[in-house]
Structure formats: C-alpha cells, structure tokens
Write a structure and sequence with these properties.
It is a single chain. The protein is α+β, with helices and mostly antiparallel strands. The chain has three domains: 33-142 and 209-259 and 264-297, Aldehyde oxidase/xanthine dehydrogenase, a/b hammerhead (Aldehyde Oxidoreductase, domain 3), CATH 3.90.1170; 301-472 and 643-790, Aldehyde oxidase/xanthine dehydrogenase, molybdopterin binding domain (Aldehyde Oxidoreductase, domain 4); 478-636, Aldehyde Oxidoreductase, domain 4. It is 29% helix and 22% strand. It has a seven-stranded mixed sheet, sandwiched between helices. Helix 20 (678-697) links the parallel strand 27 and strand 28 (728-733). It is globular.
Length: 816
Amino acid sequence: MTSTIEPEAGPEIGKARRRKEDERLITGRTRWTDNLTLPGMLHLAVLRSPFAHAKIVSIDVAGAKSAPGVVAVFTGKDLDPESAIGMPCAWPITPDMKSPRRPILASDTVNFAGEGVAVVVARTPAEAHDALEAIDVEYDELPVVLGLENALAEGAPLVHEELGTNQNAVWVFDSADAGTGSSVEDAISNAEVVVKRRFRQQRLIPAFMEPRACVVDPTGSQLVMWSATQVPHILKTMTAATLGLPEHKVRVIAPDVGGGFGGKIAVLPEEMMSTLIARRLGKPVKWTETRSETMVAAHHGRDQIQDLTITANRDGTVTGLKVELLADMGAYLGLVGPGVPILGAFMFNAIYKFPAYHFACTNVFTNTTLTDAYRGAGRPEATFGIERIMDELAVELGMDPMELREKNWINHEEFPFTTVAGLTYDSGNYEAATAKAKELFDYDGLRREQKERRESGDPVQLGIGISTFTEMCGLAPSRVLGSLDYAAGGWEHAEIRVLPTGKIEVITGASAHGQGHETAWSQIVADKLGVPFEDIEVLHGDTQSSHKGMDTYGSRSLVVGGIAVINAADKVLAKAKPIAAHLMECSEDDLEFEAGAFSVKGTDSSTSIQDIAWAVFSAHNLPDGVEPSLDSADTFDPENFSFPHGTHLCAAEVDTETGRVRLRSYVCVDDVGVAVNPLIVEGQVHGGLAQGIAQALFEEAVHDEGGTLTTGTFADYLLPSAADLPEFTTDRTETPSTTNPLGAKGVGEAGTIASTPAVVNAVIDAVRHFGVNDIEMPLTPMRVWHAIRHGSTSAGGLGSEAGGGLGSIDASGGAQ
C-alpha cells in the first residue's frame, strides 16, 4: 500500500502526493454543471418512450403547455428542421457501414425504450417534470428485435426498415492477408489440439456518480455550453457541425465532472436539444437527467458474443487464434461505438506469440439503448476472451494455466516485438511482474490448499484465477486512427504560461473527470522548470482558455497530454536560455540548468527562472531580437501506442451448496512504466479493479421481451460497495516506455481490463471438477449453483435472468 504521507524534498516525479483537487471534489465545494444558476434560466425535462419500437401516431402537448410554470413544449417535428443531419458518428469502420440518422427527438418512430419524444421548458425542474404527465402520445407498437443472433436471423424484425438489414458493418483482420502471420485456417487444419469456446460479454451501464447535465447560455456574443462531459473540445466541434453554427461562436466548458468511464464521451441529443431551445427562446436553459434516465438513455457498454478457436501443439505451443464477434450497437450508432470492438481486434493476441490470427466482427442493430465506449473500450472484451480460452486450452493439455502462459508469452529480451496483429510492443517484462505477483499471492501454497479441499470434498471449494494481460494505451497515433477511418486525430495540446512573478499556468487539452491531472501535471512541470509544486496552476476543460485538445479517454492523458506538457516546458527553457546568458554576460554554451536556475559552469553565478520571468516582464534588458515572452505551446502526436501490462491473480471460494462466491484474495502487479504519482496510480488501479470485478460478479443490463430495461434502478442493477470487495494487494514493476520521454504507459483502464477474467477463471477453476467450463457473467449465486448441478451456463443459457439482482445478496446483508 502506498503511503499517503506528504512527500519529502526531492524530484516530484515518483512522489505519492495527495491530489490538489481532492479537497474541493470530496467536499463538493466546487462547480458541477447542475450547480450553475444563470439569470432567467429555464429548465428542461424530456418525455421518453416506454416502448422499444413503435410508430408515433400523434403527440398532444396542449395539457403540458397550460401546466403551471411551463414556458414551451417542443416535439421532434419542432426541432427537426434545425438538426437535419442528426447525431454524429465519428467512426465509419467500413465504407459500406450502415449509419441511420438519429434525431435529437424522435418524430416518426421510436427505436428503443427511453428515446426522447418531447421536451418541456419550465421555470423550475419540478414544474418541467410534472408537466410531462400532461403530454399524451399515441403509439402504434412495432415488432421488437433483441439479441444479436435473433437480429441476424432470416425474417427478423428490422430496427430501421429503410436499411433493409440489422447488420451494421463487418470488419475483418487476417494475419495472412496483412502479412503479419500465416493462415489461421491452415493452423486449424494442421493443429494437434483445437479448442473452441463461446463467451458472452454482458451489457453494462456506466454508473458514473454525477448524472449527465448541460447548461446553455445563448445571450452573449458566444453561445456558451457547460456540460458534464469528458470531451469539451470534441463537443464544441461536433455541436458546430451538427447544428450548423460558426465554431468560433461556440464555447464549451466542462467544469468538475463526477466520473465518466467512457459514459461521457458521447455528443448527446440532449446537448443539441438544449442548444436549439436556448437559441429559439433566447434564454439560458438547463437539462439535468435523473438517475433513471441515466440507466435507459445514457449509452451502455460491452454486449458481445465471442466465438473463439485456439490451436496448439501437444507441448502447449500455440499455433493460431480465430475470433468471431457479434457486437450489439443498440438502435443507433454512438460517437465511436462502431469502432469499440475494433480496438479489441489488436489485443486478442495479448502477450502471446501467435503465428496465425483471424478476427472478424459483425456489428448489429437491436431495439436497445446504443452502446459506446465503456472503461477499456474493446480491450477488456479482448482480454477476457483470450485469458478465458488460455485456461480452457490448459485444461485440454493437462497443463498448469500459468505454465501455458509462460511457454507462449513474449520474453523480455525479445522487445521490441511486432505482434501477429501488426502492433509493435516497445517494452515489457512479463516474467518480472508474474514472479512478484506469485510471491505476493503464494501461488504454490494456494494450489496445495486447493488440492486438499478437492480431495476432502470440502463444500467450499477454492479456485485460482490468472490474468496476464497487456493493453494499448495512449489513443492514439493519428496516422493509425486514419488507417482505421476514424474521423479525428490522436494528438494532444498543452501550453505553459510563465507569469511575471515566476508562477506557472499549465493549460492542457486533456480534460480531467477525476484522474488527478492537476496534481500530476504540476509534478511534471515542477521537475522540468524547477519551480515549487505549489506555484503551478493547471487549467483545463474550457475551450476558450484551452483552445485546442482531443480530450480524455483511452488512457491517453499522461502518455499523450503529459508529453505535450513536457515538450512545452522544454520550449520555455529554450526561450529562457539566451535571456539568462544575456543577463549573466556569458555564452549560452557555458550555461547549465538545474533545480530551477541557469548557472555558469564552474562558477557560482546563477539566475533563477523566476528572475528571468521578471526580466521578461519588464523587458528592460533583453537580447536584441528576443520577444518578451517565455510562454510556449506544443502539440504532441504519439509515434506508437504505449503498452502497460501486468499479472492479476485471484483466489475465490465457492460454496457449492449455495453458489455464493467470496473473493478471498486479489493480487495484481502492474507495469505502467514510470509512475509520476504512485498514489494516483494505486487509486486508478483500485477503481479499475472494482469495475472489472463488478462485471464478473454483479452487473448486467437486462431487457424483457418487449425491450423494457428491467434493471433500470440500483435496486435491480447491482453495484458493489467497498464492503463487497476484498482488500487488494497491489504492486508494480517498471519497464519504461521507449516511445515517449517520460517513459509512462498509462494506467486508467488496466484494473478493469485485467480483473474480469481473473475472477471468472478463479470461479471456473473452483468448480471445474463438476463438469463446468463456463458460467455466463455476472456469476451470481444462482448461476453458479445452476452450473454446479446442471453444467455450464453459456451465451443464451441464462441470458434472461435479471443480472443477478437480489440473487446476489448474501444472507449477511452484503452483496456477494
């Protein structure tokens, strides 16, 4: 456990500093979007369809218009002329991808339960919500299609009749065609061992602490939008493009944001709706969703069926991997939703040396809430698939699952290593991380205990789960994104302003929503410029002060945005050096910079960065031709992804009489390269572990036959509390990245990516002797109990069960 004691003197990078942001965030003494109150502000409430698929016959808003406090009521037909192009999708993964227009409010047909059909504008939130009950909508229900295979079946109802199909796109990567490996079909034909499995990635809901919200003020020279978003810069550009507004007249501000996990990466219909209504009425408006709206109308995550085939020789050497995915897009396409499974395409091969690989993904429309990025975005799904099937292969071969992994992974002396998927991993040491994890976990001792319990017929069986993973972080080199047909780049921008008194302002395009950027960026700049940590202010989230940026997602903030900060700091020093030489009447070649001061080599003559800042401000004595400014900016485009990795080990106890799962211990050793702040790293890992374990044991979004979300509250959609999770043992190894000057690799998604297969592998390992080789997630007591008595639960086996719900509540009162 990393100490939280304030650090001593010395370099800032590597110190476990408490975060600058925490006091205001923890106490709530800050500005959230819903805290904002503007003069004359009106409030919006959205009426949402109770049906998953229906024609809108008529909408009668007369009763709502006459309700107390109501200023206006709008339907889709009222707003449609001003939003003709519909909501944006930035990732057309194939030239023939089907991209149905998503209206801001449905006007003809609703395609999922929760789609907005009307909006009330009133003087208070309560009056707006009360007036929704006075709107009378007549629907003509249409057939509903749910489930990936059902949607692709011949004669299935169509989500969008005009498309003529529920198939959105098919994307294929083949190592033989790409020249990165041999034919997987040849590998299957010639294999000594072939293992096939189907895995289900259930649908999840990004349950962020702060619901989505936006405030739009049209009354100034610029239209100003405040939004609880991860992507203020993208939102600004997309708002201008979607609504036909001049971009320089749009300003977007993301104040402090209470979590996102990918769930706030979207450009929302409600943001566009609020903008249109604010402009129409000429008054500020606010929309804040209720928690129940979050569950049905914010985007969902995951929702895949994975068919995997792995081939190997009898000695355990893997020879090929074939992956066939079905991915549920929901009723519409999200901002990056079609590309989420594609990110996983490059990670199914993971840390292993496969000579042959084939990946094919079919994206499918269903009458459900759309899916988009959720913490890890494609990489948790891929890691789950490969780590699960590696365990299945180990069983088929009669090998210890760790031994199988060690036989096939990339050895540390083989880096840099180009994988069968075409990525070049720059550095890593899987052996070191695994050795440390096994020691902390007591792997051999737990295996002995497991054997003893098995032989004694103990009703509580012990299972050991392994997840040795890597991921690609730092989204992303712009040329790579271009090759995948993504609409934007992956660069990031930063500026450093040196104030007259030597204090520093850092402006970053990577807008935080809880990651600790203000602290980490201050530590980086403190070391680079030699100024005190306390003398640095980090500004972000406002497209007027931070005019360029690609925002925060994909574990990119530090390894892309942080490098832009470093480069900007280097430019500050480059500007300061000739001024320092002029002030000390020496040659630039005679200067060295250390601890915040330029000094003349071999002498005690020096001048601090603060002295130079004042000299620049006064501009009384500068070299000829030198501008009076140290301010500098940089836009950094990474040359490669970064590749953190780690070994996660889970010991799970399974009560074979009740199906109850208890996580007895969890050890993870992650390699995230150089850690700027170990305390922040540990917090990111802990949060990620909680979300990954939640997928394994607790969470699932479930719809009934009519497409209604039956897990639409936290009474039904089960989130774990701290009491439901074990105490984590975390540690790190360090192999610096070679593709950025900091050596960092990214950490925001690691825990989520690695933990789900570790937990599921542990539970399967505990009950495999009952003939169980899979249990569909979440592994609720009912599903585990059913599998012990009747065999595996696989995709479709118990898919209608309501996510475990109350079935996961232990008799002691805690969710287990």
